[in-house]
Amino acid sequence: MIRGLYAEMSTNERAIRALKEILQKPGNDACADCGARDPGWGSCSLGVFICLECSGIHRNIPEISKVKSLRLSHWEDHELQFMAENGNELMKKKFEAAVPVYYYKPTHKDCQALREQWIRAKYERKEFSKPGENVRYESGMKEGVLMKRGRDNGQFLSRRFVLSERDGTLKYYIKYDAKEPKAVIKVDSINATFQPEKIGNPNGLQITYLKDYSTRNIFVYHENSKEIVDWFNSIRSVQLHYLKVAFPGATDSELIPKLTRNFLKEGYMEKTGPRQTEGFKKRWFTLDQRRLMYFKDPLDAFAKGEVFLGNRDNGYSVSLGLPAGTHCNGAWQHGIIIETPERCFLFTCETESDQQDWLKHFSDVMSAQMSPQDYTMEALLKHRH
Fold it and tell me: From the record, what ranges are coiled-coil (predicted)?
């Protein structure tokens, strides 16, 4: 029995050594699906190395993917040979041969719905294996029902949404057979970002657009994660089509960053009013490119206010602390001062690490060069105030 145990250990050690060697190959040092470093799992039926989170998704499609731990599982010789002959780079060429440029490839920072549908699209539905095939996101029209949060009562109710490439719009209707839409949103002003925790649904999507120069939020979800991810990528497809018409000389790599984006940072801070004598009040903050918006509640339709963050050379700055004599009524003591050409804003954070994180994001934004669109936005916001 002891001899058998030693034989098993040596076999397992041999497998671990072999896998370590295979991991040295280019591309195998990161998860094949989300890019997380140092994958600890492998799919011995697909020939790819993956991270712990993605291995959980692979386990849900056992007919496609057989998952094993690189350290703890028993590996057969033929499985090791299969991993050595394939690997992440080779399988990427097979399963990602024809990913549309607008399709959002999730990273390890993205939510479960995005990562699961990316994995299923690749390996289960094989959507990207055959170049030249008509992709479902490019039909030019998408119509369906999404659950939308009511602006005033907070209830989620079913609403009909229509996305049109020809019109360059996303519309939604209160009644399914209604003739007139409740809102017509131009695709060039839309942002969409997954917000499962904020919305309280794993498939929650926040759609943001400009209405009369104010940012308007709507919150939607669909019970089926494939359906909501299809909506997300269809919006990106229509946006890219619109941008190609608007900027005929631009390359895909120049246009892709103009599609949907994740917010740079969100979270609670406390702020005081313009006279800086009022008490500090807790607000939810969203940093979206150069716009720092604040809300009474994370699910508010409109921001209570917003601060434009320009470049340092134009009179914008950020620093730690609070001015001497500031009356800090709250429990949060970690201050941040933002100076703009018009006024000074004071904020407090709950922890020092949160304060440092906000400071880093504000500094990065103020260090970046401003685009022509940034100058336009700055002028519009000044005019509004």
Answer: none
Task: Give the residue among 39, 55, 48 at the shortest CA–CA distance from 87.
Answer: 48
Residues with Cβ < 8 Å from 316, sequence gap 6 or more? 309, 310, 338, 339, 340, 341, 366
Give the per-residue pLDDT at 6. 37
Q: How far is CA 72 from the centre of its chain?
A: 33
Helix and strand numbers (H, E) in the chain are 10, 17
How far is the C-alpha of 321 from the C-alpha of 347, rounded, in Å? 9
Residue 381 CA to residue 185 CA, distance in Å, equals 20
Check residue 277 and give its pLDDT: 66
Q: Give the phi and the psi of residue 336 in degrees, each rounded to 5.
A: -135, 135
Collapsing DSSP states into helix, strand and coil, what is residue 69?
Answer: strand
| 57 in Cβ contact with 116 (< 8 Å) | yes
Q: For residue 381, which of 355, 343, 350 has the smallest C-alpha distance?
A: 343
239-279 pLDDT, tens per residue? 999 999 999 999 999 999 889 999 999 999 999 877 766 78
> Which residues does the chain have with pLDDT short of 50?
1-9
Q: Report the SS3 class of residue 47.
A: coil
Q: What sign results for the dihedral spanned by CA atoms 242, 248, 252, 253? A: negative
Other C-beta atoms closer than 10 Å to the C-beta of 37 total 9
Q: How far apart are CA 54 and CA 163, in angstroms?
A: 31
Question: How large is the angle between the packed helices 2-23 and 77-85, nearest 10 degrees?
Answer: 0
In 10 A of CB 191, how many CB atoms? 20
DSSP code of residue 62? T
Q: What is the pTM of this model?
A: 0.90
CA 60 – CA 348 distance, rounded (Å): 44
